[in-house]
Amino acid sequence: MKTMLTAIAVLLAAPFAAHAGADFVEGDKTFAGEAELGATLTTGNTDTSSIKGRLNLMQELGNWENQYLFEGLYKEDTGDVTAKRYYAGIQGDYKFDEKSYMYITANYEADPFTGFDFKSVVSAGYGYKFIDSNDMYLSAEVGPGYIYKKLDDEQSALLGYDNEDSVVAHGAMNFSYDISESSKFTQLFIADYGDSLEGRSETAITANIVGALAMKFAVIVRYNSEPLDDKKSTDTETNMTLLYAF
Which of 196, 193, 176 shows the shortest CA–CA distance to 185? Predict the structure, then answer.
């Protein structure tokens, strides 16, 4: 666990440490972000409620492109919590040129319905932008990583140990296409292969409503090739949210 925390601290600090000591392109400093929010509420014979929030921040500092991502999902059905998931991630990309870059990433995810208190992944490697035009973007990343998962008390008592960890091969693919001036299609794949294969896919369509306000429809699929005995290997999540870009 100490090794894991040390690795996360180093990776989180790396983009800022490099920024302090590097010679960046003069005048190349930008900051942008997207905030999403969606909620449902049903009362009467059935009482249900759900809320989904997401904050995605992008920062460009010379040769560094940094991303900070925060997500939260909470659902209740007749007083019982049926879903609760929190995610935080950071990634720094150091650009060698217009196509190639080195990435450093770390994330933390808490989802008690998987049987784990939390899961965290750190990775560093090489990325390449195959397409980077006005209306289309395609990039891929690959590199070594490390995954650490903390079991909850029930699973720890059942299995006789309290954590799982593994060195992994980390890969990611990010694609976006502007369907029109007011709509965009995006596809994200992330996979970590070690003692098991764990992956995440997000397919989304965004359509502008007015100004910086848009409607986003997304389908998220999470996969684990070796889930705990009483858990399913695939989780799906479908969201309709309002998105504000700034």
Answer: 176
What whole-number distance in Å separates Cα of residue 118 and Cα of residue 140? 26
The CATH number given to whatever domain includes residue 8 is: 2.40.160.40
pLDDT tens track for 207-234: 999 999 999 999 999 999 989 887 889 9
Residue 194 in 3-state DSSP? Answer: coil
Give tens-digit pLDDT for 67-114. 999 999 999 988 888 889 999 999 999 999 999 999 999 999 999 889
Give the pLDDT confidence score for residue 43 in this predicted structure.
Answer: 80
Dihedral, CA atoms, 22, 126, 198, 87, nearest 10 degrees? 20
Where in the sequence is the domain holding 8, given as residue range(s)? 2-245
What does residue 69 show for φ and ψ, rounded to 5 degrees?
A: -125, 130
Tokens representing 220?
Answer: 């998220």
Distance CA(76)–CA(54), nearest Å, equals 19
Q: In angstroms, rounded to a whole number, what is the distance separating the alpha carbons of residues 5 and 120?
A: 10
Q: How many domains does the chain have?
A: 1
